[in-house]
Amino acid sequence: MPKRKSPATASPVESAARHRSGAVARMLRMPVATLRVWERRYGVTRPVLSPSGQRLYSADDVRRLALLKQLTDLGHAIGSLAGLDMAQLQKVAGTHASVLAARANVEPLRDPPSATQTWRVAVIGKALGTRLQRPALLRRLSRPVQLRGPFADAVEAHAVLQGAAVDLLVAHEPRLHEAWLAGLQAAAPSLAALPKAVLYRYAAESTCTALGTAGTALLREPQNDTVLGQWLQGVLQALPPALGSARDPAQPLPAVPPRRWDDAALADFAGLSSTIACECPRHVAELLMQLSHFEAYSAECRHLSPADAELHAYLQQMAATSRARFEEALEHVALHEGLILPPSTPEPSERIQYSSAVALPLNTR
User: Fold this and answer.
1) Which of 44, 94, 210, 319 pairs with 288 at a CA distance of 20 to 30 A?
2) What's the pTM value of the predicted model, to 2 decimals?
3) pLDDT of the chain along its 365 residues, tens only?
4) How many domains, in total, are found in the chain?
5) Cis before residue 254, ω within 30 degrees of 0?
6) Cβ distance 175 to 201 under 8 Å?
7) Residues 336 and 287 in one domain
């Protein structure tokens, strides 16, 4: 058993820079009695005394106690740790962190399975419809395309597509006039709100300017299939997320792993000692909490309005995917900063009571 020395008495200046035992116990979330036992039985720290007899701990004392508390929470015996200096304790913690990370990465996060999303494109123009099925053109597209049509004109497209799900309207207009957009809206009101792309041969500069200002994508022919495919790919990729990510509602959303840590564990991790220079662990933990709450919020909104269900399903999916990626980032930051992550939150059916682990610095910079 280490021989305990009598505490020295701190000057008033030294006292102002140190922490009392009650404050240290609250920071470490441990009883003051345990702190006293560790000092009396194992001599883990040597606090000084204030003029009034209060035990006072330096920043180095707090870092040492924090690391000891973290390692004992993870199953290490205080008796085996008490005689180690900070470098040796950090080595023990680093080994433990690496083992935990390796275990978590046995089944790394996979990209969402491709329940292949399809772009749904309505086509006006028989010749254009034929070209859009050529292999050289389709190879330029990053997703499959489901063609609706081709239709001879806007009237026919309107008659067939009322109520149908369409992401983009592509039209072939050899002679494009400034009144084309107004004529389309009059003949096919069901298509008026759709993003539009036009392949044309002749048009006045003022016509191109007006249609471009209205948001219509334009490409002048003649063009080969490679150029046409590249142009169409760019137009499709620029679609708003709720449209460009259109999927078959009958298909289930790709699975995303559940949360690894709940708010309490993340709050513990975010509440690092002010002695750490890098605040990235706190920022990443706070981002994770925000993403998790937005994920849950979007899931609730899916059931409030059938019209908004697909949009909120998409938002929930994006939030969940981002949250899973930031969980990977938190693990990476923790390893870089020498921190041990809090234990993963069990599934609802498996949840048990456990004491929150406080992530604390294993090194200082």
Assistant:
1) 94
2) 0.39
3) 444 455 565 555 455 568 888 888 887 788 888 888 888 888 888 888 888 888 888 888 888 888 888 888 877 888 888 888 888 888 887 776 666 555 544 444 444 434 347 888 889 888 888 888 888 788 888 888 888 888 888 888 888 887 778 888 898 988 988 888 888 888 888 787 788 888 898 888 888 888 888 788 888 888 888 888 888 888 888 776 544 444 445 555 556 678 888 888 787 777 654 344 567 777 888 888 888 888 888 877 755 556 567 777 777 888 888 888 888 888 777 776 666 676 666 544 333 332 333 333 333 33
4) 3
5) no
6) yes
7) yes
Q: Is position 258 within any domain?
A: no
The three-state secondary structure class of 217 is: strand
Other beta carbons within 10 Å of 130: 11
Contact (CB, 8 A) for 183 and 173 = no
CATH number, domain with residue 44 = 1.10.1660.10
Give, to the nearest 10 degrees, the angle between helix 59-73 and helix 21-28.
40
**How many Å apart are CA 94 and CA 229, to the nearest integer?**
52
Do the beta carbons of residue 347 and residue 258 sit within 8 Å?
yes
Cα–Cα distances in angstroms (integers) from residue 275 to residues 36, 58, 216, 291, 359, in the given order: 24, 12, 56, 27, 13
* Strands, E assignment, 223-279: none
The CATH number covering residue 139 comes to: 3.40.50.2300
Residues 328 and 36 sit within 8 Å (Cβ to Cβ) = no
| Cα 351 off chain centre by | 24
Pairing of strands 19-20, 168-175: unpaired
Tell me which residue range forms the domain holding 282.
263-350
Q: Is residue 125 domain-shared with residue 191, that is, in the same domain?
A: yes
User: Distances from the Cα of 303 to the Cαs of 189, 198, 312, 318, in angstroms?
Assistant: 29, 38, 9, 17
Please provide residue 346's backbone torsions phi and psi, each rounded to the nearest 5 degrees.
-65, 160
Beta bridge partners of 198: 171, 218
The residue out of 216, 244, 272 marking a domain boundary is: 244
Q: Which residues pair with 175 in a beta bridge?
A: 202
Task: Tell whether the torsion through CA atoms of 36, 40, 43 and 45 is positive or negative.
Answer: positive
Amino acid at 199: L
Query: Could you tell me if 24 and 126 lie in one domain?
Result: no
Domain membership of residue 124 (yes or no) is yes
